[in-house]
Design a protein that fits this description.
By secondary structure, this protein is mainly alpha-helical. It is built from 13 helices and two strands.
Length: 320
């Protein structure tokens, strides 16, 4: 894959060791054990966002956030607030490149996993939560943990007629027809499956892929000219409960479906986000994370979005 040299140099700048490390090891396939990769990874732990996230960590191993209306704190359990409670913070650390090897990461992750329910769920069978957590814990190095497998089994056994995912909050809302799947939960499941190549041939994964391909990834079945939501035609980072075009294209490409004709419109939407230098623009980022994780300004070229767009392109032409 040809990458613009100026874009590559930008991603490899030393001011962001997390993007630099992931560009080296995931995009350029530099061995993780090479001297430069080892040095760069060592710089991640002392980087500003990592230090600020750990500084906000409760001694018990969780992150709390005050609700603006009630002033109560959330985060001690699995209930969550706006982008700054425990499962979000763990996901940010995984994006930054940390794993269970760091004692504070292990402490927080192990504590959170121990809050899991008997069927592998965390809270109200929110697919945008349990699938999101699967991806996070795999990236943190917990793939072989039986608690993570229990949540994977839940995802595999959660069936909707349209092939997608929903949650208890919306099931049964209509008396005469089934409630359609939620695009946000579906996107989180898609990116979770993207981390699980051993299940790419599983019927549940294939049904979810069909869910996206049948609607050309982003659009309504009843009106192919209208996006399922405004989320899916925007770029966003970090990934949270919302959906974004870069997540969808990345997830499908990782599993080998990026070259399908049904993905062409999604690629076109993503390419519209590229400036004349080859860098991709950030459309949205949660305001709550700015004090500790400055990912970049909206409307400007963004290293994280560019990295994920290029990772998607790297696998985009592979067909299952």
């Amino acid at each position: 894959m040809d990458i613009n040299n100026s874009v590559l140099e930008w991603l490899l700048e030393e001011d962001n060791p997390s993007v630099r490390y992931r560009t080296m090891t995931e995009l350029l396939d530099v061995p993780a054990g090479s001297p430069e990769a080892v040095k760069t990874r060592a710089d991640i732990e002392s980087s500003e966002p990592v230090q600020k996230i750990f500084a906000r960590m409760h001694p018990d191993g969780c992150w709390l956030q005050k609700k603006s209306r009630t002033k109560e704190f959330l985060g001690e359990g699995v209930e969550y607030g706006a982008e700054a409670t425990t499962h979000f913070m763990l996901s940010y650390l995984s994006e930054l490149g940390l794993t269970r090897e760091h004692p504070l990461v292990y402490k927080a992750a192990d504590r959170y996993l121990n809050l899991q329910q008997s069927d592998g769920d965390f809270w109200l069978h929110l697919s945008c939560l349990f699938a999101f957590n699967i991806r996070t814990f795999i990236r943190l190095g917990f793939r072989d943990d039986p608690r993570v497998q229990k949540t994977i089994d839940l995802m595999l056994n959660t069936v909707k007629l349209d092939g997608g995912y929903l949650c208890e909050l919306h099931e049964g809302k209509y008396k005469t027809r089934e409630v359609k799947s939620c695009i946000r939960g579906c996107v989180k499941a898609l990116t979770a499956f993207a981390e699980l190549p051993e299940y790419w041939g599983h019927r549940r994964c294939l049904d979810l892929v069909d869910y996206f391909l049948h609607r050309e990834c982003l659009y309504r079945m009843t009106d192919p000219s209208r996006p399922v939501s405004q989320d899916v035609i925007r770029t966003s980072f970090p990934f949270n409960w919302r959906a974004s075009v870069v997540e969808i294209v990345y997830g499908l490409s990782r599993m080998g479906y990026g070259g399908k004709n049904e993905a062409a419109k999604a690629w076109a939407v993503l390419e519209e986000k590229k400036d004349n230098t080859g860098r991709y623009i950030l459309d949205w980022s949660p305001s709550h994370i700015k004090p500790f994780f400055k990912v970049g300004k909206k409307g400007e070229p963004n290293k994280w979005v560019t990295l994920y767009a290029l990772l998607a392109q790297k696998d985009g032409m592979k067909l299952c």
